Amino acid sequence: MKKSTTYYGLFALCFMYSGRYLLPYIKNIFYDAVVAATGFTHTQIGLCLSVYIIASNLFLIVGGWLADRYEPKKIMLISCVFNALFSFGVLIFIRNFYLTIALYFGLGVTNACGFWSPVFKAISLLGKRDEQGKLYGLFDSLYGLLAMLISFAGLYIYSHVSTDPVTALKGVYLFNSCLVTVSILVLALMYKPLPADAVKEEELKRKATNREIFSVLKMPRVWIFSLLVLGVYGFYSGSGYLTPYFSTVLGVSIAFTGVLATIKTYGLRIVGSSFAAFACDKVGRLKFMLIGLCVCVAFMVTFMMLPAKSSILVPIIALMLVMSTVNLSMKGIELAALDDINVNRNVNGIAIAIATLIGMNGPDILLPIIFGNILDHNEAVTAYKMIFMILVGILVVGIISCAVLMRIKKTDAQKTTI
After folding, report:
1. At residue 1, does pLDDT exceed 60?
2. pTM over 0.85
3. Which residues contact 126 (CB under 8 A, 6 or more apart)?
4. Which residues contact 107 (CB under 8 A, 6 or more apart)?
5. Looking at residue 397, what is its pLDDT?
6. Which residues, including other chains, have CB under 8 Å from residue 353's CB and lie 6 or more apart?
């Protein structure tokens, strides 16, 4: 298969991924417009997102099972069709709370069942075992670029469609729905999986049995791998609190803080994931993450020791940006490490689902509650020091898990040579 086919496939997956989550989290960008357009109370708006997240968590394991039992491309295409219908439904019934709740639940189900595990399995099927880090890194880098462009496009549409915020928001809703619809055609035409390694294509098409899929639940290495994901992603999720630290403690303007957040979210993601794409397969994916985790611990300890003074703002910002780049380089390729610990690609859909529940959804649900409570009950400088110590602890969990997995990999290699 030509390399161009692989890159076309990556683009198709990134394009679909980039437009998939704009609608469920649209309140984060256009909150006041959402209130005006829907007529919902603040509680009702929050409840819509809560229902979406609950549905996503409930059906995540089902999505892993589907990814291992059926061809990921077919699952994603079906999911995209329903996602597009639900997206148009949210626009049509924008002022009907109960139908909106039902549609958000449907969006959560389609994203969990037909997208999350299937899309990452689809990435792994685009290349050989020794190319997984490169594929995942390029995917995350390209996603960062496309997500940034789509976000700016949504902002442009909102500011130019109409001076009426309700009409302008409907334009963004329509843009998102059309984007999902177009992604169906892009995926159908551009994605073609590569037979895994040197195996015959008919072997690739052999689907895992239910017994094989659920045997993954009994594999200690999968649960340890989930803790590694927790170390990498948990730090990424929690480090979002580094940004308000600049405005709250160091006195930086909110506008400048927003610029830092944008650079950290999109710009550094492109840089970090691109670097990881070409470096991790040469160094070794687990070794790459172990080094990255250790570097982040060193930087976080340094960050904590620096006095909270605006006079040293430049070195503090530089430290934060470098640390974020290292973290994002690991985040881009973390799921590629499944190949390093000999989890068969026939069953990696369920493994990805487990790692997502523990390593990604866990921090996203718990850390805002924990950190919010710390900030509510402590003076700002003290509160952020406590938050930083928790982040260091999360990184240490990742280091220990990574070291254990490297030991498991070494033991597997020794058994193979016997």
Report:
1. no
2. no
3. 6, 9, 10, 135, 193, 194
4. 23, 24, 52, 55, 83, 86, 87, 90
5. 96
6. 60, 61, 63, 64, 65, 116, 117
In sequence order, the 6+-apart residues with CB closer than 8 A to the CB of 105 are 51, 52, 54, 55
Look at residues 160, 189, 168, 246 and name the one whose alpha carbon lies nearest to residue 11.
Answer: 189
C-alpha 314: how far from chain center: 29
Q: How many residues does the chain have?
A: 418
The structure tokens 């630290």 sit at: 245
pLDDT score of 195: 62
Quick one: tokens of 146? Answer: 């496309």
Q: What is the pLDDT of residue 200?
A: 44
CA distance 241 to 260: 12
